[in-house]
């Protein structure tokens, strides 16, 4: 990407979009295009096509969508499938219509079968049934990959797909009903600091294994892929290392509220037993993450405290 390229970050206000914006600004990109939800409803094809005709982006990071943790996915499947299928379709189609030179579409590691062989390589897509707690979202994300591939196949569009593992970092959602595990536990331990019993409820059994990537590492990978990857197949983005939820909870406790006690609630869903990505394809291209989980947790909590102290603009807190 040239520094004067017109770059549209679809979803610039979210966890991922805001990290990509920070990175592009730091790299000296000057023609950054954004649209708030009230300016442009990405689910409406006519509006999206018109916006692309008016703004003429050269590069697009398609990182917009309705996202959430295990509970939001299980209880709001209609929103997850409708919003995401529409957004992926409208943006890719408009990018094709207005001759965007390259588009990067971001999916999720939940596209892989529940019983996938671990670590999960890219070839395991569509080889078995999906995890039921996020099936609707996963189907939309798989459709996004296929939309990009179909436009490449029929029109020669340079549209690529990256599948990140579970993400965390600044600008995450800390609302306990819709967030992912890492911000949820950070918030719960933070709240426990001001209670007498200091008990923190952890959903499920604590045994599911998860992999976590700092969103600044993901942003770095997205820029890297925009410049260095143009294949039809999707590519995994992660650390290749996972840990049980119990250990994650202990790590967060040690940073936020050392004296807190964990209480597991097995009536809440565990979800996928394990989903660690095989990242050898990305590593072979020369990319690796640089932020260790311990460092990332400490830094994210510092950001959370800073936000609370300054303007309280923490989603869900
Ligand atoms: O992060 P999370 O919601 O997403 O949950 P998934 C990960 C694990 O942490 C599950 C447990 O086993 C949860 O039961 N957990 C423990 C908690 N305490 C909590 C808590 O307070 N809040 C939350 N949210 N979880 C999502 C998918 O699955 O991952 C999406 O639903 C997407 O489709 C996303 O792919 C990345 O990893 O289970």
Q: What would your notes on this structure say?
A:
There is one protein chain. The radius of gyration is 19 Å and the shape is globular. 42% of the residues lie in helices and 15% in strands. Strand 4, helix 5 (135-155) and strand 5 (159-164) form a beta-alpha-beta unit. It has helices at residues 15-26, 45-55, 70-75, 77-97, 135-155, 181-192, 215-228, 245-256, 280-285, 293-310; strands at residues 7-10, 32-33, 59-62, 102-106, 159-164, 166-168, 199-203, 209-214, 235-237, 242-244, 261-265. By secondary structure, it is of the alpha/beta class. Bound molecules: guanosine-5'-diphosphate-beta-L-fucopyranose (GFB). Residues 69-71, 73, 108, 110, 133-134, 137, 166, 179-181, 184-185, 202-204, 208, 210, 245, 268-272 line the site of guanosine-5'-diphosphate-beta-L-fucopyranose (GFB).
Compact description:
The chain has 317 residues and is of the alpha/beta class. It has ten helices and eleven strands.
């Amino acid at each position: 990407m040239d520094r004067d390229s017109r770059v549209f970050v679809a979803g610039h206000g979210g966890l991922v979009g805001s990290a990509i914006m920070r990175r592009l600004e730091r790299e000296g990109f000057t023609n950054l295009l954004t649209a708030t939800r009230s300016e442009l409803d990405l689910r409406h094809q006519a509006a999206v096509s018109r916006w692309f005709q008016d703004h003429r982006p050269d590069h697009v990071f398609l990182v917009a969508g309705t996202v959430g943790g295990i509970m939001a996915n299980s209880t709001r499947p209609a929103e997850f499938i409708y919003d995401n299928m529409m957004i992926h379709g409208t943006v890719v189609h408009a990018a094709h219509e207005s001759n965007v030179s390259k588009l990067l579409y971001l999916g999720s590691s939940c596209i892989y079968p529940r019983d996938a062989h671990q670590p999960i390589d890219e070839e395991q897509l569509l080889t078995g049934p999906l995890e039921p707690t996020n099936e609707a979202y996963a189907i939309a994300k798989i459709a996004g990959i296929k939309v990009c591939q179909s436009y490449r196949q029929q029109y020669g569009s340079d549209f690529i797909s990256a599948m990140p593992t579970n993400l965390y970092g600044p600008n995450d959602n800390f609302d306990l009903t819709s967030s992912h595990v890492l911000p949820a536990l950070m918030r719960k331990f933070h709240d426990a600091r001001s209670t007498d019993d200091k008990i923190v409820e952890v959903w499920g059994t604590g045994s599911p294994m998860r992999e976590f990537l700092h969103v600044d590492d993901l942003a770095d990978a997205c820029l890297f892929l925009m410049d260095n990857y143009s294949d039809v197949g999707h590519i995994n983005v992660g650390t290749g290392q996972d840990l049980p939820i119990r250990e994650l909870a202990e790590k967060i406790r040690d940073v936020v509220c050392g004296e807190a006690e964990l209480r597991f609630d097995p009536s809440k869903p565990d979800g996928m037993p394990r989903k660690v990505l095989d990242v050898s394809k990305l590593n072979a291209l020369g990319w690796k993450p640089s932020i260790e989980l311990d460092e990332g947790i400490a830094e994210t909590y510092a950001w959370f405290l800073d936000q609370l102290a300054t303007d309280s603009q923490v989603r869900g807190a």
